[in-house]
């Protein structure tokens, strides 16, 4: 079974997808982490982020894996744990070059389908319901007001990051939203058959419970 969860940054989709996967005993496929991991490697190797041929070659020479330990999930690039590095602002600022390169996306989609074929999966990203898993059993599109999404993102910052203001976070989010929704390759759009959930005034727990109710399955040990 594949459950697709898409939505913009700060919509709550990553937290919801991770907790839902734990709750249901499904695999969690964090596709944003995959684009980030490749961005990290391209930056390490000083590959020109606008050179599609070089980026495709790099993708072919890269092994991206997820490994889970208890409830925590880590991502490895060629055997190196890069779970923390891929969240660095420098990676966040450059990932759009990688995620907007058609040849890279083709390769990533192939890998994402392979990973999901290994078992029940919660697949989270921007194009899960539209492109990667058009036949997913259930599709959800999470969204929230931009002010609330920025508030959530700002709340996640460590004290050392606090020189970035809330207004900067909103501005940054507007830029990312525009990039995600207007790019040529697999832009962020709601799949026609996805259930839209506006999480602005909802807790994570409420969103998870709503999704469980919609899919009619609460995991091996739970009831709906
Ligand atoms: O969800 P995130 O912030 O970790 O995603 C990182 C970047 O990757 C973001 O700019 C959007 C992009 N992305 C994508 O293009 N397609 C996906 N399926 C997932 C993420």
Distance between the termini: 17 Å
* Percent range for β-strand residues: 15-25%
CATH architecture of the largest domain: 3-Layer(aba) Sandwich
Classify the fold: give the CATH topology of the largest domain: Rossmann fold
Main sheet makeup:
5 strands, parallel
Instruction: Give the helix proportion (percent range).
Output: 40-55%
Based on CA atoms alone, the radius of gyration comes out at 17 Å
What does this structure look like?
α3 (52-60) packs parallel to α5 (102-116) and α7 (146-155) crosses α8. The strands form two sheets. The chain has a five-stranded parallel beta sheet with strand order 2-6-1-7-8, with helices on both faces. The protein has a three-stranded antiparallel beta sheet with strand order 3-4-5, with helices on one face. It has two domains: 1-26 and 120-214, Rossmann fold (3-Layer(aba) Sandwich), CATH 3.40.50; 31-117, Rossmann fold (3-Layer(aba) Sandwich). With 224 residues, it is an alpha/beta fold. It starts with a strand and ends in a 9-residue tail after the last helix. It has nine helices and eight strands. The structure holds 2'-deoxycytidine-5'-monophosphate. The site of 2'-deoxycytidine-5'-monophosphate has 13 residues, from α2 and α4. 2'-deoxycytidine-5'-monophosphate binds at residues 9, 31-33, 35-36, 95-96, 99, 125-127, 180.
């Amino acid at each position: 079974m594949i459950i697709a969860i898409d939505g913009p940054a700060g919509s709550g989709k990553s937290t919801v997808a991770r907790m839902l996967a734990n709750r249901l005993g499904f695999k969690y496929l964090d596709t944003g982490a995959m684009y980030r991991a490749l961005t990290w490697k391209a930056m390490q190797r000083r590959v020109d982020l606008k050179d599609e041929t070089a980026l495709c070659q790099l993708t072919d020479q890269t092994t991206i894996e997820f490994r889970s330990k208890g409830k925590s999930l880590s991502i490895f690039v060629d055997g190196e744990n890069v779970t923390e590095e891929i969240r660095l602002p420098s990676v966040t600022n450059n990932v759009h070059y990688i995620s907007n390169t058609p040849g890279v996306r083709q390769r990533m989609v192939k890998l994402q389908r392979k990973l999901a074929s290994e078992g029940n999966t919660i697949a989270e990203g921007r194009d899960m319901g539209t492109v990667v898993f058009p036949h997913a059993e259930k599709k959800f599109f999470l969204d929230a007001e931009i002010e609330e999404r920025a508030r959530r993102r700002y709340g996640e910052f460590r004290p050392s990051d606090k020189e970035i203001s809330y207004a900067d976070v909103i501005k940054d989010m507007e830029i990312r939203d525009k990039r995600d929704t207007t790019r040529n390759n697999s832009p962020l759009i709601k799949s026609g058959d996805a259930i839209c959930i506006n999480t602005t005034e909802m807790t994570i727990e409420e969103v998870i419970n709503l999704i469980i109710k919609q899919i009619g399955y609460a995991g091996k040990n739970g009831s709906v």
